[in-house]
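Issue 218. Parser rejects a valid record. Input:
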Amino acid sequence: MKMATMSLLTVLVCSCHETVDRPLPGTSAGDSRGRPEELRAIISSYLHAGIDVVRGPLTVKEVQNELTEDAKRASTGGRRVIPGGPEWEELKAKLKRGDQLYFYKTDRQSWQELRGREGYVAIGGNEVIDDFLTRMN
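Output the parser choked on:
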């Protein structure tokens, strides 16, 4: 009989607010740490919208790389991606040891109703600490 393995990840935040992912021995970092439905519910409650996509946990460096790539691709569509901008710096400053960053995208209905959002959230325990919006309509 095969046993399912759960990915466990320790996130360390230094004084410069950079995170370092360190999988625990015998585990590997995985998407949403095996709790995608719980994360969807946490983020949905915070944003008051359904959530289609949750991806992470991500390091600060990974998010910054994604923001830089997104800024290069963005030319239209109401994007307001500012890598290293004040909102991103404020979110990073709020991070504490054990907090996690996730990418999210609200559901199709929210986009059809012109209230769709996409971005990153910082989660501590089971609570959203703050979010960084990268796209909305």
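Fixed in the parser; the record now loads. The chain has one domain: 9-136.
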